[in-house]
Design a protein that fits this description.
Elements: H1 6-31, H2 36-43, H3 52-81, H4 85-126, H5 128-145
Helix pairs in contact: 1-2, 1-3, 1-5, 3-4, 4-5
């Protein structure tokens, strides 16, 4: 059976805590793409987009997260709460989405974000937690689907 364990709930909570602020910031961006509030949240108080590509990538990723990641993540939680295998399959998908995009962002954004926030913030909230959650969720879900309970 695929009843959620303590580890499952821990990963769900970590995912919600990690992803909810980003989804909020992206929603602000989607509602008012050139608004000051979106810029303040996503790139820093009083900062502006580096160039049109910077804005378009943030805007495109916001759409992708709201159209693909958020529904998959929410549906995975529903499936897990119902103790269904498809919940863990979707959970693995949500983890792989975060792992993929944040690997890309390591190369696109590190030179801009890291100097402004420092090691601790960068390797936790700004980048690290998304990688840690994505990888852990993906591996955990694969183990659960294959009958290994943690």
């Amino acid at each position: 059976m695929f009843k959620p364990t303590f580890v499952t709930w821990l990963l769900i909570a970590f995912g919600v805590i990690t992803c909810l602020p980003l989804l909020y910031a992206q929603l602000v961006l989607l509602i008012n793409p050139q608004g000051r509030k979106a810029k303040d949240i996503l790139i820093g108080k009083g900062e502006d987009w580096r160039n049109e590509t910077h804005f378009k990538s943030a805007y495109g990723m916001a759409w992708a997260d709201w159209l693909i990641f958020a529904p998959v993540f929410i549906a995975s939680i529903v499936g897990i709460m119902k103790a269904e295998v498809w919940g863990y399959i979707l959970f693995a998908m949500a983890g792989s989405i975060q792992l993929y995009i944040n690997t890309v962002l390591w190369f696109l954004e590190k030179e801009y974000v890291y100097p402004n926030c420092g090691s601790l913030a960068y390797y936790t909230y700004y980048w690290g937690n998304f990688i840690y959650w994505g990888l852990t969720t993906l591996v955990y879900s694969i183990l659960r689907i294959n009958g290994i309970n943690l």
